[in-house]
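Q: Convert this sequence to structure tokens.
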Amino acid sequence: RQAVSGSEQGLPHHSDESLARFLWAKKTVDRAAVLVKSYDAFVAKHNIQNLTFAEVEDVFNLELYICHPEMRANNGEVILWARPRNLLRSLPAEKVQMFMFFMLNTVTLRVPACKEKGIALIIDWRGAGLKNINLGVPPLVLKMVQECLPARMKLIMHIEQPIFFSVIWTIIYPLLSSKLRSRVRLLGPVAKLTEFVPLDRLPVELGGPLNVSLDDTRRLLLGA
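A:
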């Protein structure tokens, strides 16, 4: 608190649990303080100090992301399962950005393993077409994740990439930090996931035994 505000009583809008996320993400007080300032500046710029689930529920209901406490990668990272096939090109990129902020901010607060082990992202391209691609989304979301949020992205796995993926990758790659680039895996077949995720930690749709649903993610985000 003192490193950011100059007072041990500063940052009353952050709980101790909230600030701990930044230390886990950046390891040192000085680096964590820089990230806290970036986070607070982002929140102030977009006026989302009190962002609620109801404000992002329309994007949530598209089932773009699924998160379940039992979905974990080999080293215990919490899995976020992304499904671009459900993204609508007509959806404003800013709405997707606000949903991603709410989701990542919430899971890093409510799921201790997100802080301690990090996040493993599965991007499942099955069924996605050009109608699902909004090129305004990656710059907004990647900048936010890398510069403003205490989300430890430990692994990013692309599966079943479509023919046009090379075009998307050409756009996304320069936006990634060198650290994130080293954590990307272009796997192809779904079966390749088991190189990084135990089979018993995968949902049924990805070849595992877990029955997961959007309601699991809803309960997580609502704290139910």
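Residues 29-46 form the longest helix (18 residues).
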